Amino acid sequence: MRAASGQPLARDAMAYVLAGGRGSRLKELTDNRAKPAVYFGGKARIIDFALSNAINSGIRRIGVATQYKAHSLIRHMQRAWNFMRPERNESFDILPASQRVSETQWYEGTADAVYQNIDIIAAHAPKYMVILAGDHIYKMDYELMLQQHVNSGADVTVGCLVVPRMDATGFGVMHVDETDRITAFIEKPADPPGIPGQPHMALASMGIYVFETKFLFEQLRRDAADPNSQRDFGGDIIPYLVKHGKAQAHRFTASCIRAADEIEEYWRDVGTIDAYFDANLDLTDTVPKLDLYDRDWPIWSDAVVAAPAKFVHDEEGRRGSAICSLISNDCIVSGATARRSLLMTGVKMGSFSSCNEAVILPQCNIGRGAELSRVIIDAGVRIPEGLVVGQDPVEDALRFHRSSNGVCLITKPMIDRLIN
């Protein structure tokens, strides 16, 4: 199915990314930045995946709603996503909560974050709206979801993951019939419904929705007039349409982008310390589950102007080396060793230091002789010389945030307390 002009449906669509959440389960990583702004995979931010999917799908009108501690997120988007051109009918709108409806009202929910900007969306005149969460790691062609939406005649199409049934208790779950029409939407059920023909599997919402724009505006206005609404897509808009309209499930398997060596449909909610750590380390595998080197579906981000990575010293016991690791620009590994780790832009490792299974955010400095294992180090942290982390669980938990899986999050205030 294509638009009447013969162009892909994506050319008549606008992607609207909901990026206002804090992501409190990431603990101190989101003390000063929104979850979508958290660094991921060496060079990118989490939000770059949803935005890249939109661009790669052919969508050229994008809006991003921000709210919680949005400065670093807005700054990143201004630097990395400023290539859209109005003369080509392209647009990129950053839409902070700015009390546009009321002088006392910020965005009160995901639906309200769209409702408050109806006039801005209408000025771009998209025929379709693709509503996206800005905090997941995946590659997906939204054009295929748009095609299913139009062909099915649905009022709303909901992107869904097929997951083991009892793994779906933390999601919004779709109960569907044999045609994947949604017959019930249940938020975080204790006993999720199975899929027809697959009773041990469930359909979990990805937080991706497709609407015709005119119809979406009607629903947002109806919802805004309801004093009992929480102004939320998952809590209000979708359940209403399941009951009073036609809601269709779109399975991620139908539009997931996989490079030649990718063996699974990769989607991750990196909303906890352990999930964030594991998803980053997935990239260090010889054949990674998510291929960042796929030139056919690139993950766009800020093109940082920086020197190449450098490895120095070649003496026994003092050799700059990295094994199964991602090393970004402006890193210097000076007589140190990185194993199964990610060093993001500007990380410096001093002689005789080592990191094993480490996610090190930009501009960190690892002191001489430090030994770090299973750590996440926040941006700009200076690790003292000789610090050992990952060998004594009790001591680690006293000094840092230690997750249930034994991953230590290290931030600047934690180091300041340690050395003062």
Automatic annotation (TrEMBL):
<feature type="site" description="Could play a key role in the communication between the regulatory and the substrate sites">
    <location>
        <position position="106"/>
    </location>
</feature>
<feature type="site" description="Could play a key role in the communication between the regulatory and the substrate sites">
    <location>
        <position position="67"/>
    </location>
</feature>
<comment type="function">
    <text>Involved in the biosynthesis of ADP-glucose, a building block required for the elongation reactions to produce glycogen. Catalyzes the reaction between ATP and alpha-D-glucose 1-phosphate (G1P) to produce pyrophosphate and ADP-Glc.</text>
</comment>
<keyword id="KW-0067">ATP-binding</keyword>
<keyword id="KW-0547">Nucleotide-binding</keyword>
<feature type="binding site">
    <location>
        <position position="172"/>
    </location>
    <ligand>
        <name>alpha-D-glucose 1-phosphate</name>
    </ligand>
</feature>
<feature type="binding site">
    <location>
        <position position="107"/>
    </location>
    <ligand>
        <name>alpha-D-glucose 1-phosphate</name>
    </ligand>
</feature>
<comment type="similarity">
    <text>Belongs to the bacterial/plant glucose-1-phosphate adenylyltransferase family.</text>
</comment>
<protein>
    <recommendedName>
        <fullName>Glucose-1-phosphate adenylyltransferase</fullName>
        <ecNumber>2.7.7.27</ecNumber>
    </recommendedName>
</protein>
<dbReference type="InterPro" id="IPR056818">
    <property type="entry name" value="GlmU/GlgC-like_hexapep"/>
</dbReference>
<dbReference type="Pfam" id="PF24894">
    <property type="entry name" value="Hexapep_GlmU"/>
</dbReference>
<dbReference type="InterPro" id="IPR023049">
    <property type="entry name" value="GlgC_bac"/>
</dbReference>
<feature type="domain" description="Glucose-1-phosphate adenylyltransferase/Bifunctional protein GlmU-like C-terminal hexapeptide">
    <location>
        <begin position="307"/>
        <end position="410"/>
    </location>
</feature>
<feature type="domain" description="Nucleotidyl transferase">
    <location>
        <begin position="16"/>
        <end position="285"/>
    </location>
</feature>
<dbReference type="Pfam" id="PF00483">
    <property type="entry name" value="NTP_transferase"/>
</dbReference>
<keyword id="KW-0119">Carbohydrate metabolism</keyword>
<keyword id="KW-0808">Transferase</keyword>
<dbReference type="InterPro" id="IPR005836">
    <property type="entry name" value="ADP_Glu_pyroP_CS"/>
</dbReference>
<keyword id="KW-0320">Glycogen biosynthesis</keyword>
<dbReference type="InterPro" id="IPR011004">
    <property type="entry name" value="Trimer_LpxA-like_sf"/>
</dbReference>
<keyword id="KW-0321">Glycogen metabolism</keyword>
<dbReference type="GO" id="GO:0008878">
    <property type="term" value="F:glucose-1-phosphate adenylyltransferase activity"/>
</dbReference>
<dbReference type="InterPro" id="IPR029044">
    <property type="entry name" value="Nucleotide-diphossugar_trans"/>
</dbReference>
<comment type="subunit">
    <text>Homotetramer.</text>
</comment>
<feature type="binding site">
    <location>
        <begin position="187"/>
        <end position="188"/>
    </location>
    <ligand>
        <name>alpha-D-glucose 1-phosphate</name>
    </ligand>
</feature>
<comment type="pathway">
    <text>Glycan biosynthesis; glycogen biosynthesis.</text>
</comment>
<dbReference type="InterPro" id="IPR011831">
    <property type="entry name" value="ADP-Glc_PPase"/>
</dbReference>
<keyword id="KW-0548">Nucleotidyltransferase</keyword>
<dbReference type="InterPro" id="IPR005835">
    <property type="entry name" value="NTP_transferase_dom"/>
</dbReference>
<feature type="binding site">
    <location>
        <position position="205"/>
    </location>
    <ligand>
        <name>alpha-D-glucose 1-phosphate</name>
    </ligand>
</feature>
